[in-house]
Design goal:
Elements (H helix, E strand, L loop, with lengths): L10 H18 L7 E5 L2 E6 L6 E5 L2 H10 L2 H9 L3 E5 L1 H5 L1 H7 L4 H15 L25 H12 L3 H5 L20 H15 L7 E5 L5 H10 L2 E6 L2 H13 L6 E5 L11 E7 L10 H11 E14 L8 H9 L9 H10 L2 E8 L1 H17 L1 H4 L5 H20 L2 E10 L17
Parallel strand pairs: 1-3, 5-6, 5-8, 6-7, 8-9
Antiparallel strand pairs: 1-2, 3-4, 9-11, 10-11
């Protein structure tokens, strides 16, 4: 736990500062029921709970510690961790659960004033940390019109073009970066992602020689699986150059050039009408933007043949469309710059307004919790290897982002749904009378 403390005038003043901080922590965590330790560099400030700490928060600078106490803003907590001004040892999930405790904490007016004055005076005794290289923060990048083609392209590349090797270290063998489907909670990630790919194909009732469009095809797993196992002609589009290059290579290795094509293209640039029998979109519509959903769904409607099926798989939230939460602010700033979530009811309404008939809606919330837990565990296990392809900052961002999302899926703040719909037709669509076909 060696760390270099900066900006402290003298050991005596540092000791006095830490003693004052300790008293504030004692009040803030008076009713905390977990096991937690807080350190300043290699100096222990305070430990809460009766057992071994589930996690240790190590502040390598005092300035971020004072700011966190003054504002109790989880985004400051995250930013300090990403920049290396603070370290987390132990269970990262227990750290993230502090958000709910701090949110519910009630302080008297006197306590707030007292804490503010104390931390403000201490804050003025330390040097403000110099800004580290922040080129990885989206907000530092040039502004572009929200959800324009240029912004969407830049945002996708910002997230997905970190490095294919980076993603290989913690994704499954097919490089599927979306919610898996677990038959049992102890299934491995590879089999759960295969389950998901096949479930989508069954829901779409894919048949040989049908044409399938996959919007946001990622590294090509679904189009390759559909062509190999269902005999369809599949076309995938992505905005990520890295994904495009990788998917082309995998298609060639599989000998599927006659059945699978990959294109670097925005969905809004797809031309034609009634071209595809089936359309899938998995983990993509979160990037579309709520205001652009009518354009997105009407584009899919135009491309589908009459009676064609459309499966939309994506994340939702329990807040009304566009509402900003701590989680969404963090994700927008550091992870998905163009991400916007809405309630499942609003998504269905927009689909119906675009003349889709909804046939099936399935919640996969427990499946995404398990998926994210697998990803975090695998990312942690490959920490040293990750640093060969990405920075320590990227590792910390993805680690905190995925662990935080896991908790949001666990408590219901976020959901994920597969919606199966058909291009509305005056005739009765030839759908199976029961859902048995989904599970055979």
């Amino acid at each position: 736990m060696e760390a270099k403390m900066e900006g402290i005038p003298s050991p005596a003043r540092e000791a006095d500062s830490l003693e004052k901080i300790k008293k504030i922590f004692q009040r803030i965590f008076r009713d905390y029921r977990g096991n937690l330790a807080i350190w300043s560099g290699k100096t222990e400030i305070i430990t809460f709970g009766k057992g071994k700490p589930d996690c240790i928060l190590i502040f390598n600078r005092l300035k971020p510690l004072y700011d966190l106490l003054r504002f109790r803003d989880p985004l400051l907590f995250a930013d300090a961790y990403f920049r290396g001004w603070m370290d987390i040892e132990g269970d990262i999930y227990s750290v993230l659960k502090l958000k709910d405790y701090l949110k519910s904490l009630t302080l008297s007016g006197f306590e707030k004033i007292s804490f503010w004055l104390t931390t403000h005076s201490l804050n003025n005794t330390v040097e403000r940390p110099r800004e580290s290289d922040a080129s990885w923060i989206w907000l530092k990048r040039p502004a572009m019109p929200k959800h324009s083609k240029d912004m969407n392209r830049a945002a996708i590349r910002f997230h997905y073009d970190v490095s294919n090797e980076f993603y290989k270290l913690w994704l499954d063998e097919r490089m599927v970066y979306s919610c898996a489907y677990f038959a049992h909670s102890d299934d491995n990630l590879d089999s759960a992602q295969q389950n998901k790919l096949d479930l989508i194909c069954r829901k779409l009732q894919l048949r040989p020689n049908e044409r399938l469009l996959d919007i946001g095809c990622g590294w090509g797993a679904l189009v390759i699986w559909a062509a190999q196992n269902y005999g369809v002609t599949a076309h995938g589009i992505t905005l990520s150059q890295n994904q495009y290059n990788y998917a082309l290579q995998k298609v060639k290795q599989a000998g599927l050039e006659d059945l699978v094509s990959i294109e670097l293209k925005d969905y809004r640039d797809l031309t034609g009408e009634a071209i595809y029998d089936k359309v899938s979109s998995v983990g993509m519509f979160e990037h579309v933007g709520i205001k652009n959903l009518p354009v997105y769904f009407s584009t899919v409607h135009r491309l589908l043949k009459p009676g064609g099926l459309f499966l939309n798989h994506g994340i939702t939230q329990d807040e009304e469309g566009g509402s900003r939460t701590v989680g969404s602010e963090l994700i927008t700033k550091y992870v998905f710059p163009d991400g916007e979530l809405d309630r499942i009811s609003n998504i269905q309404r927009e689909m119906e307004r675009s003349f889709f008939e909804i046939h099936d809606v399935e919640s996969l919330r427990p499946h995404y919790l398990l998926t994210l837990q697998h990803w975090v565990k695998r990312l942690d296990a490959h920490h040293e290897e990750v640093l060969q392809y990405a920075s320590e900052q990227i590792f910390r961002i993805w680690r905190l982002y995925m662990a935080g999302c896991a908790l949001q899926f666990e408590n219901g703040e976020m959901g994920v749904y597969q919606i199966l719909a058909a291009k509305r037709s005056p005739a009765l669509l030839a759908m199976p009378l029961t859902r048995d076909y989904l599970y055979k």
